[in-house]
Specification:
Rossmann fold; alpha/beta; elongated; 2 domains
C-alpha cells in the first residue's frame, strides 16, 4: 500500500517518509487541540451531543487542514500539501482549480503573477519521444516551463522537436562538459532550476550534480537496481532482460547521483513479458510506460522541489 501511494504521489522514499510523519503529527495535534478546546468550552458528558459533533467537524474540516499546512511548511513540504488541499477543496466544491474563484467553474484560471516559474532543462541524445511528451504535458502550465533542450548529438530528432515548439537548443561537446564548466553558466543564464534526462547517454559530471543537488532526474528502461549501470541503455537493456528470461520489466524514474543508475528511486511501473517476447516488442511496451508516466511524474517532482 505504501509503495502504491509513493508512486501515485510521485515522490522519493525520503519525501514519502516526511509526508507520512506530517500526517501523523497533524492527526495527533488535532486530537489534542480538540480535547483542550472541549475542556476550555466547559463541555462535559451532559453537554448536548450536537455541540460536540459540531466541534469535531469544525476541527476536522478547518483545524486539521490548517495544521496540516503548518507542519508541511515547517518540514519543507508546503508545495505538496498545498496541492493536496486544493484537490480536496475542489472535490468539496469550495474552490474550482480551473477558475481560482470559489463556487465557479466557467472561467479560466488566472495564474498568480507572484508565483515564480520553475524553469526546466531537458537533456536528450536521440529521437526525443519522451522529451516531446513532457513538452506537450507542460505546455501552458502556469508554473513549469521547459526553457531549453540540451543535446550532445548533432542531427538528433529532439532538435527538430525543440524547434517545432520554439524551445532553444544548447548543443554541448564532450571536453567542456566533462572537464570544463559543464555548461553550468548557460543553464544559470536560462535560470534553470531542474534538469530532466530523457534519453541522454552521457554520464552527468560531478560539477553539474553539485550545482543541482536532488534536482536532476532520469528515466531508465528497466526495474532498477537490475539491468542498470554503465553501458546499459536502450535496446541493450531489453536484450539482457529477454536473455535472462525475466517474467516482467518496466521503467524506473530516479534521482541522479555520481554513479550510473544508482540514485534514489522515485517511481517504477511494470509490464509483463510474454513467452514470445522480443527485445523490439518489449521496447514498445517500455515506451508506452514511459510516455504514460514520465510527464506526470516530472510535473509532480518539479512542483514539489
Amino acid at each position: 500500500m505504501f509503495k502504491r501511494l509513493q508512486q501515485k504521489w510521485g515522490v522519493s522514499v525520503r519525501q514519502f517518509g516526511i509526508i507520512f510523519i506530517i500526517f501523523g503529527l497533524t492527526g495527533t495535534t488535532t486530537a489534542l487541540l480538540t480535547g483542550y478546546i472541549t475542556v476550555w468550552l466547559g463541555m462535559t458528558e451532559t453537554t448536548f451531543w450536537l455541540w460536540k459533533v459540531l466541534l469535531r467537524l469544525a476541527m476536522l474540516l478547518l483545524g486539521y487542514q490548517v495544521i496540516l499546512l503548518g507542519y508541511g511548511a515547517l518540514l519543507g513540504q508546503w508545495a505538496f500539501f498545498w496541492k493536496y488541499e486544493k484537490k480536496l477543496l475542489r472535490k468539496l466544491g469550495v474552490r474550482s482549480l480551473e477558475s481560482g474563484v470559489e463556487g465557479t467553474t466557467n472561467k479560466p484560471q488566472t495564474p498568480n503573477p507572484k508565483l515564480q516559474t520553475k524553469q526546466v532543462a531537458i537533456f536528450a541524445s536521440g529521437a526525443g519521444s519522451n522529451a516531446e511528451k513532457i513538452i506537450q504535458h507542460l505546455k501552458n502550465h502556469p508554473v513549469i516551463k521547459v526553457s531549453v533542450i540540451v543535446c550532445n548529438k548533432p542531427g538528433a530528432g529532439v532538435i527538430t522537436i525543440a524547434e517545432n515548439n520554439q524551445i532553444p537548443v544548447l548543443m554541448i561537446e564532450r571536453e567542456r562538459f566533462f572537464r570544463g564548466d559543464s555548461y553550468i553558466p548557460e543553464l544559470k543564464a536560462h535560470t534553470i532550476s531542474f534538469i530532466v534526462l530523457a534519453g541522454f547517454l552521457w554520464k552527468i559530471p560531478d560539477a553539474l550534480i553539485e550545482a543541482y543537488p536532488n534536482k536532476i532526474i532520469n528515466i531508465h528502461p528497466a526495474l532498477l537496481p537490475n539491468y542498470g549501470g554503465k553501458g546499459m541503455y536502450g535496446m541493450k537493456v531489453h536484450e539482457a532482460v529477454i536473455a535472462a528470461k525475466e517474467k516482467e520489466s518496466g521503467i524506473t524514474i530516479h534521482y541522479v547521483n555520481e554513479h550510473f543508475d544508482e540514485g534514489e528511486t522515485i517511481f517504477q511501473a511494470k509490464c509483463t513479458i510474454d513467452a514470445q517476447e522480443t527485445p523490439e516488442s518489449l521496447a514498445q511496451k517500455i515506451h508506452t510506460l514511459e510516455h504514460r508516466h514520465f510527464p506526470e511524474v516530472v510535473e509532480r517532482i518539479v512542483m514539489n522541489s
